[in-house]
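[audit] Reproducing an earlier prediction to check determinism. Same input, same settings, fresh worker. If the tokens differ from the archived copy the diff job will pick it up downstream; this log only records the rerun itself.
[audit] input (166 residues):
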Amino acid sequence: MQSSSLAASVIMATVYGYESAPKDDPFLDNADKAIILMTNAMFPGASIVNSLPLLRSFPSWFPGSQFHKAAEECRILTTEMLDMPYNYVKKKLVGVFFSVNKLVLYSKIYLFQAIGEATPCLVSELIEENERDGGSTDGEQTIKGLGATSFSGMWRRRASILKSND
């Protein structure tokens, strides 16, 4: 388990510039819960809705529709898994945006100067690049997904290591 903590710490430091706590880390704990819930829900037979997709249209109060509650919990956890570390980096990047009009081309160039205390990391650099390119929502979603994928890939590796130690 210690090697998996180290792997998680390295990934969080590289991707988010975040120093994770050895125990009870909010980012890691949330991601673990989300990944476990998603993984368990995907197995064939894990939920009746996997076999009978028609049940998705039934209201949540309908008998046998407990999967609605699990799906909502999973949605909340995965959204937090994407947003929490991203917002941590974004808050650390207190930036000043200003535009310069180029008279010849009549176009604006957006300049971003980070004046915050963010540790240089993959996500901070991608945020700065996205802001220089106009700050698109699609760009933000891509950056969030990249970070979550990095962590969930480590989690999958950790699960296989733990399983092989049994």
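[audit] rerun output stored. Observation attached for the diff report: The chain has one domain: 2-164.
[audit] end
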